[in-house]
Design a protein that fits this description.
252 residues; alpha/beta; Rossmann fold; 7 helices; globular
């Protein structure tokens, strides 16, 4: 059975990364998260692209059988900023012992109910990552999260602390470019593809900035792809990093 736990800090945490207003914003979206035509419709379109990169990164990192349907069997996975579980459920189906952490208790609750209905054993916890005693994981993911945190350096260090020796970190985020400002903040929010108020363009992080944060935490990028959009192809992996990008990183 899936287990959702609401974590309430007993005292202020010096390395806090959660912005309460961000957690509240995404918590309000919880009930519609699994509706592919609802407020999280863009995430439903993005998820297959992220999973394509993730599967390739897993096979390259661990040298597994590319034909295997469960390449994460015997491994543990942590998805940080898991929302209602759009990535956790595929990770569990790929064989991982999966844990999801989110800032919004509403998301953890919806995620646990959905996983239970799907017959998946996934642990969901709401709270500040740095305060949770979770141990380490073979795979740590944080998709479209770092642009929402209060302290990006502290967040990266917390992710690395959760990474087991020989582990793999996969992270995706919008790039801070004129293209992302026009399409992801302007057009997408104006036309309802992304809920209004989801993004602050000034919080987007460039690949160079992220590379420096990872290096400071002892990681190096091993794989990097852009997530681009074309009317004839939709969202797809690309060498164009100007809109959004996804990286795999490992300890140096």
């Amino acid at each position: 059975m899936s287990d959702a736990t609401t974590h309430t800090p007993s005292k202020p945490f010096a390395g806090a990364t959660i912005r309460p207003e961000e957690a509240a914003h995404f918590g309000r979206l919880a009930k519609d998260w699994w509706d592919p035509k609802g407020s999280s419709a863009m995430l439903h379109r993005l998820n297959p692209v992220r999973l394509q990169f993730l599967r390739e990164a897993i096979d390259l990192h661990w040298g597994g059988d590319v034909r295997s349907r469960r390449p994460l069997a015997g491994k543990s996975a942590l998805d940080v900023g898991c929302g209602a579980g759009l990535l956790c459920e595929p990770l569990a189906r790929l064989g991982a012992d999966t844990t999801g952490v989110d800032a919004a208790p509403e998301n953890a609750s919806v995620a646990a109910l959905h996983a239970e209905g799907a017959g998946l054993d996934i642990r969901y916890i709401a709270g500040e990552l740095g305060e949770l005693d979770l141990g380490t994981f073979d795979l740590v993911t944080a998709m479209e999260v770092i642009e929402h945190v209060a302290d990006k350096g502290a967040f990266v260090h917390q992710l690395v602390q959760r990474l087991a020796p020989g582990g793999l970190l996969v992270l995706s985020t919008p790039n801070r470019t004129p293209q992302s400002r026009l399409l992801m903040v302007g057009a997408a929010e104006t036309f309802g593809l992304i809920p209004r108020g989801t993004h602050d363009w000034s919080d987007f992080i460039t690949p160079e900035e992220l590379r420096n944060l990872l290096a400071a935490a002892g990681l190096t990028i091993s794989e990097q792809k852009g997530i681009a959009f074309r009317p004839d192809k939709g969202l797809h992996l690309s060498n164009d990093l100007s809109l959004n990008y996804i990286i795999a990183a490992r300890k140096v």
